[in-house]
Structures are given as C-alpha cells and as structure tokens.
Design goal:
- Helices cover 38% and strands 18% of the residues.
- Strand 4 and strand 5 form a beta hairpin.
- The longest helix has 14 residues.
- The relative contact order is 0.15.
C-alpha cells in the first residue's frame, strides 16, 4: 500500500542527523561567485536508484549539485542547469550515463504507447514528445555533451565532460 511506503520513509526521516545540517544557499552562492575562486560543479545523472553520484564519486554534501532524471539526459536538465548556474556560477558539468540503464530497455515508442492509452486525447502531442531512449550509452553521452556545447544558454567557459558508469564495477570511463 502506498501509504505504508510513505509511512516507512517518514519513519526513516526521523533519524536525520541535524549535525549534517548544511550552510545557507546565500553563503554558498557568494563563495561560488567569488572572483578567482572555483565555481560550482553540476552532475547530471540517471534517476536509477542503483546509480547515486554521492556514492560513485564518494562525496557528501556541498561538493556538487546533482540533477537526476531518466537516463541522465541533458535535454531534460536545461531548466535546472540554468537556475543552478545563476545561483552557483557553474564552471563544470559532469554527465554520467550507465550500463544496463532503464532507458536502453524502454524505447520512446513504449512510453508513447502507455501514454496514448492513458490520454488518447493527447495523441498528437505525445507523438511529438521525446523521452530520452538510449540505444548506445557512449553515443547518448556524446549527444548530450554536444547538446550542451551547442546551447547558447550554456556558457562557453564551462567544462563539460561525460562518463559511462559500469554498474557492476562502479568504474567511470570518460567518453569523448
Ligand atoms: Zn539509467
């Protein structure tokens, strides 16, 4: 039952360690905008519960902002990237896609089929929508790097790198 899931999560939340309370965003933003200092780092990674940036990069709070969506696709991340850049002066974007990604198992056609059954009145709109299917992980990383590099909304001074995460070994391989 969904309510049992939520109750379980709320129970876990009670154990939050207040000693881990973070600094305020105004202070973080000021530090990242300090001339001569490093700007912010943003990691774009998959929603998959098996691939957690804080685990595969072994960091806690305060090192990088994380955007997660199905597949870790940059097209989906642009709104968040813009807001995070204004707040945190982004100088580095790290894109991570991974082996055995759900988006390699669920083509856009499958998502469209489900949505059309649910909302047949929106069939035309659904036909135009893209859901980020991945047929080749290295290629999807190259596409997503290229999308950000081509976007006038992303500063040309931002370092953009892409990695393929092997979920069995936890190792990252850079994709150029
Ligand atoms: Zn995935």
């Amino acid at each position: 039952m969904a309510s049992e899931k939520i109750a379980s999560l709320l129970e876990r939340n009670k154990g939050f360690n207040v000693a881990l309370a973070p600094p305020f965003v105004a202070d973080i933003s000021k530090r990242l905008h300090t001339p001569g200092g490093p700007g912010g780092t943003v990691i774009i990674s998959c929603s998959d519960p098996r691939v957690i940036p804080e685990q595969y990069f072994d960091f806690g709070r305060g090192v990088a902002a994380v955007i997660r969506n199905a597949g870790g696709r940059t097209s989906d991340a642009l709104r968040s990237l813009a807001a995070l850049d204004a707040l945190g002066n982004t100088d580095t974007v790290i894109i991570v896609h991974h082996t055995d990604c759900g988006m390699t198992h669920m083509p856009d056609a499958g998502v469209r089929k489900m949505l059309k059954e649910r909302a047949p009145q929106l069939s035309k709109e659904i036909d135009r929508m893209k859901f980020g299917e991945i047929t080749d992980v290295d290629e999807s990383i190259r596409q997503d790097i290229a999308l950000l590099r081509a976007s006038p909304l992303i500063s040309k001074t931002v370092t953009i790198v892409g990695f393929n995460l092997d979920i069995l070994t936890g190792q990252l391989t850079e994709v150029k």
